[in-house]
Amino acid sequence: MKKLLGMLGLAKRAGKVSTGTFICEKMIKSGTAKLVILASDASENTAKAIRNACISYNVSIIQCSDMSELGHWVGADADRAVVSVNDNNFAKAISDIYNILIQTEKG
Q1: Running DSSP on this structure, what letter comes out for residue 83?
Q2: Segment holding 94, helix H or strand E
Q3: What is the residue-wise DSSP string for 7-70?
Q4: pTM for this prediction
């Protein structure tokens, strides 16, 4: 998981990440978001709104970590429930790492 979050941190430093529910939903609807990361402890309403937007606009979504850790890795001063990755290359790299983690867990 640290590798995935580290890649997310790199994307943030490159200016290719947006955080927060409202901004991420805007990025999804504008076609800017290439991947959305949803915290495992996001509220039910936030999770539903983001999932519905991702489905409607065909944006990949992964769920991992918690709000505190997501906020830490994107350099935010507070918890973050949602992060959008707004670059194809970073989105692919993070998705690839996530898929490897999932395969490893399945054994």
Answers
A1: E
A2: helix 88-106
A3: HHHHHHHTT-EEESHHHHHHHHHHT--SEEEE-TT--HHHHHHHHHHHHHTT-EEEE-S-HHHH
A4: 0.92
Ranges of residues in the chain with a pLDDT under 70 are: 107
Pair of tokens at residue 2: 């640290």
**Per-residue burial over 40-64, b = 16 or more CB atoms within 10 Å of its CB, e = otherwise:** eebeeebbebbeebbeeeebbbbeb
State whether residue 75 is helix, strand or coil.
Answer: coil
**Closest of 45, 38, 29, 88 to residue 63, by C-alpha:** 38
Q: What SS3 class is residue 84? A: strand
Rounded CA-CA distance 6/12 in Å is: 10
The confidence score (pLDDT) of residue 78 equals 87
Cα atoms in the Cβ-side hemisphere of radius 13 Å centred on 12: 17
- In angstroms, rounded to a whole number, what is the distance separating the alpha carbons of residues 44 and 30? 23
